[in-house]
Amino acid sequence: MLRKFINEELGKGSDVKYNPIHPIFRLADLYLLYAEALSEYNDGPTAEGLTFFNQVRARSGMPVYDAANYQGGNNREKFFNAIVYERKAEFFMESQRYFDLRRWKKGSDLNLKMAGILINNGIVSRNDIGWTNIFRDNMYFHPFHIEAVNNTKGLYQNPGW
Question: Quick one: which of 20, 54, 109, 139 has the most CB atoms within 10 Å?
Answer without folding.
Answer: 54
